[in-house]
Amino acid sequence: MHNILRRGRQICRTPILKVGLILALTAPVILVLPTESSAVASPIISVPSGARTAPPPLEPQEYFLQSRAAKPVHIYQATCTLTRGDGLHAIVKTATRTFKDMKTLSVNYRLERWTGTAWVTFAGSSSTQTQTNLLRSNSDWEVTSGYYYRVTSVHTAHDGMTSDQSTHTSPSVLF
């Protein structure tokens, strides 16, 4: 009989020990959980402050060289970049490289501002050189704060007989 009572007490103690062990292990986790949600910056999605419009949609053609020809005949690199200068200055840099010297090498580019529904031309420029395989052109424009801007450039190479044209669009930048 003593064995039965003793065994009964062990059986009764086992669930209490299990419950106590579970409570002891989960209590620190419950105490560590924050009561308010904390804001964490995401490297992928950022919501910059001071914007006057919603961010522009991502375009599938951004960042890629496009050519009218299936295989570019003359142009092997066409770039345009938009960076912040001092204050509210937008610095635009373009470069066009060809496989060989061209009779004319030109670039037309425009700084565009996002209105919240469409891209509109804010400023523009162009540059042309002859008998070269490299054309660089830079501009510095003062912009309005709170707007997204991007650069679209059209690079053209002409060897006297055939032309090659490539278009490039930079990522947008909030000023």
From the 3D structure, determine the CATH topology of the largest domain: Immunoglobulin-like
Please estimate the helix content.
10-25%
Query: Strand fraction band?
Result: over 45%
CATH class of the largest domain: Mainly Beta
* Count of extended strands: 7
Quaternary status: single chain
Give an overview in words.
- With 175 residues, this protein is an alpha+beta fold.
- Strands 1, 2, 3, 4, 5, 6 and 7 form a seven-stranded antiparallel β-sheet that branches.
- A hairpin with a 4-residue loop joins strand 5 and strand 6.
- It starts with a helix and ends with a strand.
- About 14% of the residues have low confidence.
Short overview:
The chain is an alpha+beta fold.
Strand and helix layout:
Elements: H1 2-32, E1 66-67, E2 75-84, E3 89-114, E4 119-142, E5 148-158, E6 163-169, E7 173-174
Antiparallel strand pairs: 1-6, 2-3, 3-4, 3-5, 5-6, 5-7
Descriptors for this entry?
alpha+beta; 175 residues; Immunoglobulin-like; elongated
